[in-house]
Design brief:
globular, 277 residues, 7 strands, single chain, 7-stranded mixed β-sheet, 21% strand, Rossmann fold, alpha/beta
């Protein structure tokens, strides 16, 4: 899809200035960003998690990557596509006072929202940086753990994204990312819809391809930690495709899934190029 990054940046700039409730039913908010898409359709409940801050929860995730991330006290954690800071603040509760959390987002409005939130909370070991996941504003071998929540499907060049993850992880560091993938094909009109791209649907790729890219960029021990099928309500689908196309899609057995994936960067003793080790 042409101008995918601009579509995402524009939509998430609008979302940054809405509440979670407005993102569930955007037409309750500004009519300028009214749409038929529920941007919280994949999200999970964070209420019981230590470090959770409702002001930072815009309901935009598709899992809880920290749940499986094996984050330890003192770790440096980087969150890709950190939004208003929701997963960063949960990660901060795990790294403690001796660790560090860096959130990266390429929507300036999200960075501003996250900075407001961290200022209110008074944390001195959580920071937010403006940057593109395809070219991370972080030095090599920086992170013990990289997390991301329903964001990498929005990145046009996923090979670049996971190559950057490999570069930024420390030797023996690991990632835990929640994302949306496909099993089977989406209807053509759905794939072309900008709203559905920003809604983490039409930019999703096949599950096998997604896992293959992770391995291709030099990450190892790739494991799907959690998987669940997501059913998009018919009324949303029918905004973009006909009733016959929806019926054909359901009969095809194709599905949209939320997965949480673990992978490791090999230890320092492996000095060959990514993809060869």
């Amino acid at each position: 899809m042409e101008n995918a990054k601009e579509i995402v940046k524009e939509k998430y700039s609008q979302i940054a200035n809405q509440s979670k409730d407005q993102n569930e039913t955007p037409c309750r908010g500004s009519t300028e960003c009214c749409s038929g898409v529920d941007y919280t359709i994949f999200s999970e409940n964070y209420d019981k998690l230590e470090g959770y801050n409702p002001d930072a929860d815009l309901g935009l995730g598709c899992g809880i990557p920290t749940e499986f991330a094996q984050i330890k006290a003192g770790d440096t954690v980087i969150d890709l596509g950190s939004g208003a800071g929701n997963d960063c603040f949960v990660a901060r509760a795990l790294v403690g006072e001796t660790g560090k959390v860096i959130g990266i987002d390429f929507t300036q409005a999200m960075i501003e929202k996250a900075c407001e939130n961290v200022k209110k909370l008074g944390y001195n070991n959580v920071e937010f940086r403006y940057g593109d996941i395809e070219k991370l504003p972080v030095t090599a071998n920086k992170a013990d753990v990289i997390i991301s929540n329903c964001v990498l499907n929005l990145v046009p060049d996923k090979v670049k994204a996971f190559s950057e993850i490999h570069r930024v992880l420390k030797a023996s560091g690991h990632l835990s990312v929640s994302d949306v993938v496909l099993n089977g094909n989406l209807p053509g009109k759905l794939k072309e819809a900008g709203e559905m791209y920003a809604g983490c649907v039409s930019g999703a790729i096949q599950k096998d391809e997604y896992l293959s890219i992770i391995k291709k960029t030099g990450l190892t021990n790739v494991l799907v930690q959690k998987e669940k099928q997501v059913n998009i309500p018919d009324e949303i689908m029918l905004d973009y495709i006909s009733a016959d196309e929806l019926s054909d899609f359901k009969k095809s057995g194709a599905g949209i899934f939320s997965i949480t994936v673990y992978a490791e960067k090999p230890s320092a003793e492996c000095e060959c190029d990514p993809g060869i080790c």
